[in-house]
Design goal:
The protein is built from 10 helices and 12 strands. By secondary structure, the chain is of the alpha/beta class. Strand 6, helix 2 and strand 7 form a beta-alpha-beta unit.
């Protein structure tokens, strides 16, 4: 007998996965959590019925949300990760030799436990001594934070449920406050195909608190339309400029390169026009 998991990716659009086995399924204090073994993508983390990450395609997302701000900063030493309990962002952050400390703030301890047990290759970096794990609401943590960071990566779920506060203006204001001069942050902002208004709105809101705010994109095969958006806010560096070649030497990636960094800021005309109507720059990456 074959089992299937169906995810409604957009109204009227479903993606069906062949499932070999269900490794864990539970209701945590915050959400429905499942880890399943799929036929095509290997072990897969699902939260509230939405695929978060899979063993086969996670590197697309984790590399693009992480290396764009990390390589845009001249010397990132202290990094904040909000969400990302699967450990993928932390793994990519720690590839940068200048990093001295990573604070990972995850609201749901069960996500940390599940991925450490069932997706250990992805979560292995969480055991690194440079990583400080904090189980807390990311909005509350950042609002009360007295530390400062060079880079912040907000690896959140969709803007509903426990992640809704991570998309509000007051959270962006708090992030802007806890970054050093010249600091940067990124977060995911949904599908450029099905939710372009989310990208445009995020770009406008981030632009209220950061002098540089740009939209960029990357492929994620298991996300709706296979094409995903990110917003980056900067207190100084232009994030659309790829790093010098010598900075990427010795850092192993599967998708990210200087060329994909540059290309990620090339937006299609319809997004340029939407951003222009919203008051954002129509070119140069939005």
């Amino acid at each position: 007998m074959r089992f299937r998991f169906e995810e409604e990716q957009a109204p009227g659009l479903w993606l069906t996965y062949g499932v070999r086995s269900v490794l864990r399924q539970e209701k945590t204090a915050y959400q429905e959590l499942a880890v399943v073994e799929t036929e095509t993508f290997g072990r897969t983390l699902i939260l509230d019925g939405a695929v978060q990450t899979t063993e086969r395609d996670e590197f697309f997302y984790h590399e693009m949300i992480t290396h764009v701000p990390m390589f845009s900063h001249p010397r990132p030493r202290r990094v904040l990760v909000v969400g990302g309990g699967d450990g993928g962002v932390v793994r990519e952050v720690l590839k940068h030799p200048t990093v001295e400390r990573v604070d990972l703030v995850e609201i749901d301890a069960r996500v940390l436990e599940a991925t450490r047990e069932l997706m250990p290759r992805l979560a292995a970096a969480l055991a690194d001594p440079r990583v400080n794990l904090v189980v807390q609401d990311g909005v509350e943590f950042v609002a009360a934070c007295e530390e400062a960071y060079d880079v912040a990566v907000v690896d959140s779920t969709d803007p509903v449920g426990p992640a809704a506060g991570l998309y509000r203006p007051e959270f962006y204001a708090s992030l802007a406050r806890v970054l050093y001069p010249g600091g940067l942050f990124t977060c995911q902002v949904e599908s450029p195909v099905f939710c372009p208004d989310v990208l445009v709105r995020a770009r406008g809101t981030v632009g209220e608190y950061f002098p540089v705010a740009r939209i960029y994109w990357g492929p994620v095969p298991t996300y709706p339309a296979g094409w995903w958006g990110f917003v980056v806010g900067s207190h100084g560096p232009d994030p659309s400029r790829p790093p010098d070649g010598d900075r990427t030497e010795g850092i192993t990636t599967r998708y990210y390169t200087r060329e994909t960094h540059r290309a990620a800021f090339a937006l299609p005309r319809y997004l340029q026009e939407m951003l222009a109507r919203d008051g954002a720059a129509p070119s140069g990456g939005g």
